[in-house]
Design a protein that fits this description.
The protein is mainly β. Helix content is about 10%, strand content about 40%. The protein has helices at about 80-85, 90-95, 135-140; strands spanning about 5, 10-15, 35, 45-50, 60-65, 70-75, 105, 110-120, 125-130, 165-170, 175-180, 190, 195-205, 215-225, 230-240, 250-255. A six-stranded antiparallel sheet has the order 3-6-5-4-8-9, covered by helices on one side.
Amino acid sequence: MRKNVTTGLMVLVVVLASACGDEGAVPSEPDTASTTSPGSRGVSLTIDAGSLELPDARSASVRTVSGAVEVVGYLDDPDAVASGLANAAIVARLVDGPATDVACTEQYGGPDVAHVVGTIDGRLVDTRFHRADGCGIADWDLAQPILPPPIWSGAPDALVGDGAHPVVLAPGERFTIRLQANATTGYEWEIIVPAGLAVVDDRYEQSDDTGLVGAGGVQVFVIEAGQAGGSVIELAYRQPFEEGTEPAETRTINVEVVAAD
């Protein structure tokens, strides 16, 4: 049996990038697009994706018609979808479901959920995805050609920080905020944490591209929950020595600390 190290939202990792679209905006659905299908694979899939609070915030469908892949909904790159469906690992995950008898890391990638149903080459598909632990994150990343960008990715069409997707945890639990940053520019993320939350770690992780001049990295904050209640974390990306200047970017993260029954 698959071992999940996390329970609910015990340990949370919120992954944020440095660019995002309008907060809370659900993008309009693009027109149908198609491309040549890999081989003669027959595909008919429907995907509902969103968050724990809004599980069907967006939808898409994929099907093959006369040897071509057609996509509708949030999917707008039939070539990428066709390439993904040519990947045996993705097809196996869709048909067989998540792997079993594996240990999952204590990692939380966001409240994303997705439900995929349909058929591939006559084989039934009825499987769910999430990003609540390391295994779920890996599965989501694998199936990215047919799943939307993670909510906390900051991608232009992601549902970013709209208040409908708070980080939920119990007193004493921790979560991690990861934001793209570049220390070589003099910019850094400043954080304001309200009462009831505490920063227990603040560090900068250099990118693996250390040989590149000006390579960026990730700034990491580990937050621990204290008393129950709702609060908002404020983040600003600025050069600390430039007093009085407006930050280049800002973020807010809604947090709900819920006491155990």
